[in-house]
Amino acid sequence: MDIILQVAPLVPEISLMLGAITLLMLGVFAGEKAAHGIHKLGVMLPLAVAVIITFDPLEAEPGATWLMGAGMLSVDHFSQIMKSLLLVAASFSLYMAPRYLEQQGTLKIEYPVLIALSCLGMMVMVSANNFLTVYVGLELQSLALYVLASFRRDDLRSTEAGLKYFVLGALASGFLLYGISLLYGLTGSIDFAGVSAVLATTPDSFAARMALLFILVALAFKISAAPFHMWTPDVYQGAPTPVTAFFSVAPKVAAMGLMVRVLYGPLLEMSADWQKVLIVLSALSMAVGAFAALGQTNLKRLLAYSSIGHVGFMLMGLACANQTGGEAMLVYLSTYLVMSLTAFAVLLSMRTNGQPLEEIKDLAGLSRSRPGLAAGMALVMFSMAGIPPLVGFFTKVYVLLAAAQSGLMPLAVLGVVMSVVSAFYYIRIVKVMYFDEPAPAYDRGFDTGVGVVLVTGGVFTLAGLIFITAISYMASYAFQTFYP
Q1: SS3 letters for 141-164?
Q2: Residue 484 forms part of a structural domain
Q3: Nearest to 342 by CA among 285, 399, 391, 291
Q4: Angle CA(177)–CA(182)–CA(184) in degrees, nearest 5?
Q5: Is residue 382 included in any domain, yes or no?
Q6: Per-residue model confidence (pLDDT) at position 203
Q7: 399 and 313 in contact (C-beta within 8 Å)?
Q8: Rg for the chain (alpha carbons), in Å?
Q9: Containing H/E element for 184?
Q10: Total domains present in the chain
Q11: How far apart are CA 425 and CA 302, in angstroms?
């Protein structure tokens, strides 16, 4: 009984691992003819694990923590909420994928298995309580993502995307390991508590600052923050569209969760130092996301730069270095997931004669041929631009107010200016759909997965103000782990 109680908080990770192995074995014995069935099981697996997480094993007040594996994993309400977000996002991205993958001849048994294994790495990341666990979780996630990026092995762009992602990902991993080694040399520990205890007495150490810098560079790469964003547009464009949809949501949840875990945990004593770095990363990300997207003609590349800009707003929340800013970041992240998945649902519907379309010009006149699709895309674009009364407006206000209240007024003003600049390319998409001469009509046929995501995203975008209170409560509940 004691053993069962000890491993109870890790049931979600164990369940996902066993589920992934089961899917793999089913695929091996049943062959490719079972790809559809395995994919359906793959959609249900992350949702089932998310449901398991809702049965709170802590049964304690907010802020309670269970340390597992000799203290290497921390199971608390923050990690549970981040795991639930990334699992739901992964499930919806899988739900949209089968028709596209089938038409491209890449509906393989390995696809849901790789998604599940990458999610397992992400779950380890957001529960990490030791820098060794951080690295193991990060690499488990990354190795699966490298393969997913190059999933279309016969497509030059896809293989190029996977190779670029792998090379730059390996470089980022090297930065992370070097930063960890510097911290170990300084503190004699890679455990979060041990590192925090030593840094509390030597926060101004040059070695500690260098370690912080290397770790932040690695984490900035993982969330595609400028100037470490160079992989993002190429990988977004080259990877299969369902993979890009997955990249735009679940890994960002895990990377932001890991950044919170590290900065608000062992490196909290150095908040004055990492706050300055985050301010720079936030400003650069918002600027790059706003200006670099202006000249894009490919919709996937545009969404890549858009994601960089949104990461800038999330980093603005973290740069506040307090509970209010952290909660604002989590609210922004939660709503961004929905908007991003909805945009990719439209992108997955863009097919003519069975061939996927990706150019902005292919949206021309969409309001006349597919008014529902155009309306869904218009709602998301207006929301991402921060047009009231859509949900994107309120989440931007949430972050900007947190920054202003934390004394980061120049950064908040820059955020407002960059929102105005980025509104140009969001509204340009709406203009193309509603005012340009129609392009060739898309293939007819109802894709259930895409339709469900599109309707859900549209309703959430319109009625987001209703959900903001619940999301804010969730964020407050999560950050009581760090501010009990």
Answers
A1: HHHHHHHHHCCCCCCHHHHHHHHH
A2: no
A3: 391
A4: 90
A5: yes
A6: 64
A7: yes
A8: 21
A9: helix 156-187
A10: 1
A11: 9
- CB neighbours of residue 209 within 10 Å: 16
Taking Cα atoms as reference points, which of 256, 432, 453, 233 lies closest to residue 343?
A: 453
Tell which residue, 252, 308, 221, 310, has the closest CA to residue 93: 252
Element holding 419 (H helix, E strand): helix 409-435
| Tokens of residue 175, six digits | 């930065």
* 282-341 tens-digit pLDDT: 999 999 999 999 888 889 999 999 999 999 999 999 999 889 999 999 999 999 999 999
Chain Cα centroid distance, residue 5: 31
* Residues constituting the chain: 484
CA distance 179 to 159: 30
**Cα–Cα distance measured from residue 312 to residue 306, given in angstroms and rounded to the nearest whole number:** 10
Q: What is the mean pLDDT of residues 231-236?
A: 90
Please give the biggest Cα pair distance in the chain: 69
How confident is residue 484, by pLDDT bands cut at 50, 70 and 90?
A: low
Distance of CA 269 to the CA centre of its chain: 27
Domain holding 106, by residue range, is 2-479
Q: Is 80 helix (H, G, I), strand (E, B) or coil?
A: helix
Residue 446 pLDDT class (50, 70, 90 cuts): low
Helix, strand, or coil here: 356? strand
Quote the CA–CA distance of 116 and 20 in Å, as a whole number: 6
Question: How far apart are the C-alpha atoms of 376 and 459, rounded to whole Å?
Answer: 9
What is the structure's pLDDT at 348? Answer: 86
> In angstroms, rounded to a whole number, what is the distance separating the alpha carbons of residues 384 and 393?
8
Residues 6+ apart with CB under 8 A from 289: 226, 305, 306, 307, 308, 309, 310, 311, 312, 418, 422
- Say if residue 103's pLDDT is above 70: yes
Is 185 domain-assigned?
A: yes
Confidence at residue 65, expressed as pLDDT on a 0 to 100 scale: 67
Nearest to 161 by CA among 105, 230, 113: 230
Tokens 């003519």 belong to 352
pLDDT at 442 over 90: no
